[in-house]
Amino acid sequence: MDDGLAILLLVGLAWMWWDGRGVAEHAIRAVKNHCDQIGVIFINDTVEWQKVRFERNYNGRVQLKRTYSFEFVSDMERRYRGEVIMLGNRVKKIELDAYRI
How far apart are CA 21 and CA 4, in angstroms? Predict the structure, then answer.
């Protein structure tokens, strides 16, 4: 019984990691597109995982809400931070720190 529980736990962790990578890649594409639209430069094409929570979507279903941070520049002098919030595999919100134009 203990071996079965350990295997189930490992499979669950592997699924969380695999699913999280897919969501992070989707977040990277969304942030890159958003930065291109507003005229700033997305640095390193990476997002950094900040937190994971459960939240209900607009249909009332519980999904994982993942928050990632990233960096961008607007004037090539100073780095700024932004945050992308994913609910399931959809972008819920992208926020950027105030930056110079």
Answer: 26
CA dihedral 53, 57, 62, 65 (to 10 degrees): -20
Position 1 confidence tier, pLDDT thresholds 50, 70, 90 = low
- Other beta carbons within 10 angstroms of residue 75's beta carbon come to 11
Single-letter amino acid code for the residue at 49? W
Does the pLDDT value for residue 8 go beyond 80? yes
Dihedral of CA atoms 36, 41, 43, 45 in degrees, nearest 10, equals: 20
* Contacting residues for 13 by C-beta, under 8 A, at least 6 apart: none
